């Protein structure tokens, strides 16, 4: 009996292994001669440019360290809990890039996370979102990519330890966490909402940064848009868990995504900054409106904004106390006034655009002071945040103790939340993530 059970278990294991190998195996797709630019219409290339902009292709496929690199030539370094990963060259170079790829090969990589050669792609390439793209968008993207300048540049090898470096493990990851399939419109919503959902959940892959991940690096589907840590910044929640006292309304979202600054919530900084300035400012307004419309529904803005008037009035009152009232006797308040107050003071009834009201900003209401510290240390250039308005870096001007005092002061006077803890240590830890002292650093 025991022998039969063991034999059955071995047989089941063998069959399971063979079944997994069958599931994991993909044949190579034949190479082609790089298509001529004249084989694509100007209209299709333009549509593909929009698809590439809405998918932020250049953001992750252009090297930024070591002096930077040519656009779309890859070698962008992505730090993951498992090791560094370097992005692929997606220019039409036939050897180093995708010039020898057919449209079918590109479609397979986006829909199933498998390269032309039949190799499983690492999900740092968010094919779990791109799988939702339509055939038309993929065809247009192919036309755009194949008409970019070819760059003969190799990327650095990934730094994943064995056995994670074996790509067959990616097939196992897919078996657990990946469901391929084109986006299906929700008939209970209008066309604008469905366009926004298609972009957010598909090509724009918003959840890749704003959804927390499990220990295997997969997005937690039950925590969609709950916020996550990305590149030592916090990508805040995009749903009704966003803690700011005034609601991210559809108009606030549109202004932020289109122009890089929301009247009440302030400017886009850190890894988010290129999204409005470099990409979404270059696409049809309808699509940006669609994203704003979708996320306003995700965060239940219509039901939540009833308290906004009172929250805004309270924020204006607290800002005034820094100049008139008990806050002027607080040593931490004086430090804040000397370093920050001149640019962040507001008076009723509304914050001045370009003078962010910190009492309404995500950075003060998150569970950690991460984003507040990052902005203090990096500052914002005139190309980031609100166009033409800069904030200097205080990397040299403020010590970790100074930053901790300002953070504690703002948390206790601008929010109704418990104080942050270990502020000096966290300031020192965030300072270590700054790889290059910003050129606009205060002295």
Structural write-up:
- With 443 residues, this protein is mainly alpha-helical.
- The protein has helices at residues 2-24, 42-54, 57-60, 103-112, 127-130, 135-145, 168-177, 191-201, 207-210, 250-259, 274-279, 285-298, 301-304, 308-321, 331-344, 362-365, 370-378, 400-414, 423-432, and strands at 77-80, 83-86, 228-230, 233-235, 261-262, 266-267.
- Helix 15 crosses helix 18, helix 17 (370-378) crosses helix 19 and helix 18 packs across helix 19 (423-432).
- The longest helix is centred in the N-terminal third of the chain and has 23 residues, at 2-24.
- The model has no long low-confidence stretch (mean pLDDT 91).
- One of its GO terms (cellular component) is plasma membrane.
């Amino acid at each position: 009996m025991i022998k039969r059970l063991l034999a059955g278990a071995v047989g089941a294991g063998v069959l399971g292994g063979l079944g997994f190998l069958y599931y994991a195996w993909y044949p190579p797709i034949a190479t082609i001669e790089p298509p001529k630019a004249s084989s694509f219409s100007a209209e299709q290339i333009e549509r593909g440019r929009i698809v590439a902009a809405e998918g932020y292709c250049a953001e992750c496929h252009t090297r930024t360290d070591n002096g930077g690199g040519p656009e779309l030539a890859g070698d962008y370094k992505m730090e993951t809990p498992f090791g560094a990963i370097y992005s692929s060259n997606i220019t039409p170079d036939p050897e180093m890039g995708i010039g020898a790829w057919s449209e079918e090969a590109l479609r397979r990589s986006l829909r199933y996370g498998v390269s032309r050669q039949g190799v499983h792609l690492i999900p740092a390439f968010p094919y779990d979102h791109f799988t939702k793209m339509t055939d038309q968008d993929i065809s247009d993207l192919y036309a755009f990519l194949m008409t970019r300048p070819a760059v003969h540049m190799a990327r650095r090898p990934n730094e994943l330890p064995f056995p994670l470096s074996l790509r067959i493990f990616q097939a196992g990851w897919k078996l657990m966490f990946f469901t391929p399939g084109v986006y299906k419109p929700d008939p209970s919503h209008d066309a604008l909402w469905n366009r926004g959902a298609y972009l957010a959940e598909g090509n724009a892959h918003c959840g890749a940064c704003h959804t927390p991940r499990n220990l295997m690096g997969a997005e937690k589907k039950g925590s969609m848009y709950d916020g996550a840590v990305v590149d030592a910044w916090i990508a805040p929640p995009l749903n009704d868990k966003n803690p700011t006292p005034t609601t991210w309304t559809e108009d606030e979202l549109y202004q932020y995504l289109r122009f890089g600054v929301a009247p009440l919530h302030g400017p886009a900084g850190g890894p988010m900054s290129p999204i409005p300035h470099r990409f979404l400012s270059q696409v049809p307004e309808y699509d940006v409106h669609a994203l704003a419309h979708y996320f306003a529904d995700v965060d239940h803005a219509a039901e939540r904004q009833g308290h906004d008037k009172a929250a805004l009035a309270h924020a204006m009152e607290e800002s005034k106390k820094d100049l008139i009232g008990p806050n002027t006797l607080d040593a931490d308040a004086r430090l804040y006034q000397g370093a920050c107050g001149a640019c962040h003071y507001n008076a009723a009834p509304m914050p001045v655009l370009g003078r962010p009201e910190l009492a309404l900003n995500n950075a003060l209401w998150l569970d950690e002071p991460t984003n507040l510290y990052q902005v203090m240390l990096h500052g914002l250039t005139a190309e980031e945040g609100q166009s033409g308005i800069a904030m200097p870096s205080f990397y040299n001007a403020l010590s970790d103790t100074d930053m901790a005092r300002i953070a504690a002061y703002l948390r206790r006077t601008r929010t109704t939340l418990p104080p942050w803890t270990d502020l000096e240590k966290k300031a020192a830890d965030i300072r270590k993530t700054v790889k290059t002292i910003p050129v606009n650093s205060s002295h």
